[in-house]
Automatic annotation (TrEMBL):
Organism name: Streptomyces toyocaensis
Stretch forming the signal peptide: none
Recorded family membership: Belongs to the EamA transporter family.
Lineage, uppermost ranks: Bacteria, Bacillati, Actinomycetota, Actinomycetes, Kitasatosporales
Region named Disordered: 304-348
Name of this chain's protein: ABC transporter permease
Ranges of compositional bias, category Basic and acidic residues: 317-332
Protein's cellular compartments: Membrane
Length: 348
């Protein structure tokens, strides 16, 4: 059982590791100054490919839920992320993004009834401090728009992560379909923004085309499938503590492939952030149980993440419905400000 849980965590961690390669691919292969077009090329082709594979569309309330999640996790997150990265110096967007676990801790208490512990908050602070040492550089005055965009992107994906766990998935629908719905909805939201702000798509050479194929398939379609799969079986806080792996991967790729130097403070920061990531996974039960207890009335009990982490679809109707606690009625009326998050800088 422990081995199955470790495998699930490792597979989920591949998502932020993949996102950590985004910066190198963008700077080395893609046209400069086209953040919205790049976000569009990451999201929409990936979503359409996944929809073609699963051939499942949302039904009923899941049309608006998929649209909301797609806006939070993709449509708002991608543009705000790149806006922050272009306007903030020295990795400051990554530092703001590393506060994502703390956002999720607070939102999980509000929406999922998961009480934060001192250890969780301390782990989040250590992770943010480690990322700061890795990516922060000396810089002049900070750009207010960039700071607000970084905060909004962090909040956006944090809200999306918690709502993804709270709403779960429709019965019989797996994380592949859920990822396809969100990526398609987010891509459709970005498309008109890219056209209005950046004009017609740029001409692409072979390296740029290859870069976009990599971003759409491995970096987005596969990575978001693994991410949403992890959210379905682990706690939202546990998943978001994997986020610091993205800037750490970006730093390692920059050192190994781009010849960027790593200073002793950066190495120390990497150790701190990685240690916090590991600490965020220790001593936590699978999130399936927590999610099921806050499932909508009539929902079916999800399988344990430990018992069947590879499963794509949810269980059949032979499961008994979960009895809903009274506290759920109050938490469902809680209002969440729609902001804009796990990811980090352009490196996410």
């Amino acid at each position: 059982m422990a081995a199955g849980r470790a495998t699930l965590i490792a597979l989920t961690a591949l998502a932020p590791v993949s996102w950590g390669t985004t910066y190198a691919v963008t700077t080395e292969f893609l046209p400069p100054g086209r953040p919205l077009f790049t976000g569009l090329m990451r999201a929409l082709p990936a979503g359409l490919v996944l929809l073609a594979l699963v051939r499942v569309l949302p039904r009923g309330a899941w049309w608006w839920r998929a649209s909301v999640l797609g806006a939070l996790n993709i449509g708002a997150f991608f543009p705000l992320l790149f806006l922050a990265a272009y306007r903030l110096p020295g990795g400051m967007a990554a530092v703001v993004g590393s506060a994502g676990p703390l956002f999720v801790v607070a939102l999980s208490a509000l929406l999922l009834g998961q009480r934060p512990t001192a250890r969780t908050v301390l782990t989040g602070v250590v992770a943010a401090s480690g990322v700061s040492l890795v990516v922060l550089r000396a810089a002049g005055a900070l750009d207010l728009v960039g700071v607000l965009a970084a905060l909004a992107s962090t909040a956006s994906m944090s809200v999306g992560t918690v709502l993804t766990q709270r709403w779960g998935r429709p019965e019989g629908v797996g994380p592949l379909a859920l990822a396809g719905w969100q990526l398609t909805a987010g891509g459709l939201l970005i498309a008109p923004l890219a056209l209005l702000a950046e004009g017609a798509p740029p001409a692409l050479d072979a390296p740029a085309a290859g870069g976009y194929v990599y971003l759409a398939l491995a970096n987005t379609a596969v990575a978001y499938w693994l991410w949403f799969r992890g959210i379905g079986h682990l706690s939202a806080t546990q998943v978001t503590f994997l986020g610091p792996l993205s800037p750490l991967t970006a730093a390692v790729v920059g050192w190994a492939a781009l010849g960027e130097a790593l200073t002793p403070p950066q190495v120390a920061g990497m150790a701190l952030a990685f240690g916090a990531t590991v600490a965020g996974q220790i001593g936590r039960g699978p999130g399936a149980g927590a999610t099921a207890s806050f499932a909508p009335r009539g929902a079916k009990v999800a399988r344990s993440a430990v018992a069947a982490p590879e499963g794509d679809a949810q269980p059949d109707s032979s499961r008994e419905p979960v009895r809903q606690p009274r506290a759920m009625d109050r938490s469902m009326r809680a209002t969440v400000a729609r902001g804009s998050s796990t990811s980090t800088t352009r490196r996410s």
